[in-house]
Specification:
Helix content is 74%, strand content 6%. By secondary structure, the chain is mainly alpha-helical.
């Protein structure tokens, strides 16, 4: 049923939206003003007339690119949480849309909610309206909302989606912290070293020419390195940019290359373990959320495959889906991939035997999310002194090599 609906509902064409500042007179003669996001002026007038406001002036302020902001996963998570609260409180869905749209501070998100409200008011279901915006509402979100509409538990499904996305974004943040922190510090270290070699060392070199004596070996090596950096630094910048461009382009164009890069990333010491446990946690959380909402296991596995964040695990989950569709147990299919940890496989097996698979999958996700959190904290605490030592050796070595001739000249005098 969900597949048929997904095929029938086509994504909407992108409409240019604008912010409109308006002023007018309210029902009791009080002057009012505000801001509305819409594509055309008559849409603003229609909204205001529906609220019994006599319009005095409407001025277009800007388009989507002019301060509207971009919609992020956390905005979608907040929207799901607010809609769940409204519906649980007994507020009709159209009125809930209106209240949520007015409470959102980001104009782009407010415009999206208003589009959903328009679609629902014209006869579409909530899930059908969301499927017209695939960039913001993924398959999991739409399927759970559709299940909630059919079972009369839309508020619980929205709350489940919000909780799922909150945990997923928290996990993504931890992984990004593990990846970006050391990369940023190392990049700064290389930048400081290059600045010293290109700008500072040449000043000392011109001073040493007047000494008329042989320079220490360490100083000669630093000067040679400085001359090399001055002559070829731009080659280094171009090479770094070319490598980044090649990797990004290759991952976008070639699925095989993207798979090899993901497989290589899992083999990086410490970082690979964090990515590995993160993929297991995301798989378990997504599968627990979808299966617990009543989605068939085979279809839930299809959704979970795209949520792992790793092509290695994505292929493994697709293999699990094929095995489960032929009658294999989930735990056995996971073991056959030789990709999932033994603990996760055992806990899933226990959940299957006890008839509480979704609860056990949530426990697996909680366990590995905590593992990721602990590993990120450990990595950060270990990297800080290591990076300080490395930067101290680099910068301190350059400074000492430049001052050695001055020290020797002082001892001679």
């Amino acid at each position: 049923m969900a597949t048929t609906t997904a095929r029938r509902v086509r994504p909407k064409e992108k409409v240019k939206l604008y912010r409109w500042n308006w002023s007018g007179v309210g029902p009791q003669g009080r002057r009012v003003r505000g801001e509305v996001v819409a594509a055309k002026r008559f849409e603003v007038e229609k909204v205001l007339n529906g609220q019994n406001i006599i319009v005095k002036s409407i001025k277009r302020k800007g388009g989507l690119g002019g301060g509207m902001g971009t919609i992020k996963p956390r905005d979608i998570m907040l929207f799901a949480r607010q809609m769940s609260t409204m519906i649980r409180a007994g507020v009709p869905i159209l009125q809930a849309f209106q209240v949520v749209a007015e409470s959102l501070k980001k104009p782009a998100m407010s415009a999206l909610v208003q589009e959903l409200m328009t679609d629902v008011s014209s006869g579409s279901s909530f899930s059908e309206a969301m499927r017209r915006h695939p960039l913001h509402f993924d398959k999991l979100f739409c399927n759970l909302v559709e299940a909630g509409e059919q079972s009369g538990s839309l508020d619980r499904m929205l709350d489940r989606v919000a909780t799922y996305k909150e945990k997923l974004e928290t996990l993504k943040g931890k992984v990004k912290k593990a990846l970006w922190y050391p990369a940023a510090v190392i990049l700064v270290g290389f930048a400081v070293t290059a600045l010293l070699l290109i700008k500072v060392v040449p000043q000392f070199e011109s001073l040493f020419h007047g000494f008329g004596a042989e320079l220490p070996a360490m100083t000669r090596m630093t000067i040679a390195l400085s001359e090399f950096a001055q002559a070829y630094w731009w080659w280094g910048v171009l090479g770094f940019a070319a490598v980044v461009f090649f990797i990004r382009g290759g991952m976008q164009r070639s699925e095989a290359f993207r798979y090899r890069m993901h497989a290589w990333a899992l083999k990086i010491p410490v970082i690979g373990q964090i990515l590995d446990k993160s993929a297991v946690a995301r798989y378990s959380r997504t599968l627990a959320t979808t299966f617990g909402a009543g989605v068939p296991l085979v279809e839930a596995l299809d959704t979970a495959a795209g949520a792992t964040g790793s092509m290695v695990y994505e292929r493994a989950v697709h293999q699990i889906r094929e095995d489960v569709s032929t009658g294999q147990q989930l735990a056995f299919a996971m073991r056959m991939t030789e990709q999932f940890p033994a603990l996760a496989v055992q806990m899933v097996g226990i959940g299957e035997e006890a008839g509480s698979l979704d609860a056990m999958l949530n426990r697996v996700a909680d366990y590995y999310e905590e593992e990721v959190d602990n590993m990120v904290d450990t990595l950060t605490s270990l990297l800080e002194p290591f990076i300080i030592v490395v930067l101290g050796v680099l910068v301190g070595g350059l400074v000492i090599s430049m001052y050695l001739p001055i020290f020797e000249l002082g001892s001679v005098i």
